Amino acid sequence: MRRLLLVAVMCGAASVASAADMPDLPFLRGSFTEGLSTSTVNWQGFYVGGQGGYGSSDAKFSGSNATMLAALLDHNVIEQMQVSQWNLGLGGRSARSSAFGAFAGYNSQWDDVVIGLEVSYMHGSFGGASRATKELVSGSALSDGFFHDVAVDSSASISISDMATFRARAAYAWGCFLPYMYGGFALGKADIARSVTVRDAVSLTINGPFTSLATLNATDAVHNHLIYGYTAGLGVDVNLVGGLFMRAEWEYIRFTSQIDTNINTVRAGLGYKF
Question: Which residues fall within 8 angstroms of residue 108, CB to CB, at 6 or more apart?
């Protein structure tokens, strides 16, 4: 009996020593495991988070006032100088701004492949303003028998305060990292203002003296106007612990309605997957 008891004690001690020598298994809460050696983070499910970033916007104002100018000069004799087709030199303007917001979405996961839908929102101050003047004297008398000295003052501005993008994401789970790319459509809220002023003076000779006529002007201003476009970008989510993850991302947005505006932002965020 004492020999049997001694053998049992020795076997138990050997088992404890063997267990102490085994490496820790890399099991994480919310992860998939493959055998006893590897684990894959479980990205499937709903998630929400907050984000902040910094970006630049490029607004292209060329041609933005052409329709307004054409309507203002409809049936006016100086349209014989093709004033509504002038390149007014508004060009483009760039601006930079910080921004903050939130995101939410849902992931579906098949092994290492992750597909999802996401909504992202940012609040900032993107856009710009431009002003230009162009003046020209007609090379010959127009149909009214006068030479015309025409000057056009033009201005345009856009200020985008809120942006929301609706994306489809494709990602690959690599350990605790989830690199992804996405594309979708974008909506924005903007204040847009455009104005043109036309000054006209006439003379019987090309060298003057010129007599000023009534000034013509038109203004179009809208507030909280809905603009639309598309988005694309790249990013990576990094699992920290449990459902908590951090994010780094680059996003490109182009608004094509009203005034053509491109916005590039880099962002960092913190989210939680349920």
Answer: 44, 114, 115, 116
Written as six digits, the tokens of 174 are: 């690599």
Task: Calculate the CA 79 to chain-centre distance.
Answer: 39
Burial profile 85-111: b = 16 or more Cβ within 10 angstroms, e = fewer: eeebebeebebebebebebebebebee
**Are 237 and 245 within 8 A, CB to CB?**
yes
Which of 29, 47, 31, 271 has the alpha carbon at shortest distance from 175? Answer: 31
Pairing of strands 92-110, 113-137: antiparallel
The tens digit of pLDDT for each residue in 224-259 reads 999 999 999 999 999 999 999 999 999 999 998 778
Radius of gyration of the CA atoms of the chain, in A: 33
Output the CA–CA distances (angstroms, integers) from residue 230 to 63, 126, 163, 265, in the order listed: 21, 16, 11, 14
CA distance 237 to 171: 10
Task: For residue 6, give every residue at least 6 positions away whose Cβ sits within 8 Å of its Cβ, in sequence order, or none.
Answer: none
| Prediction pTM value | 0.78
* pLDDT tens by residue, 139-165: 999 999 999 999 999 999 999 999 999
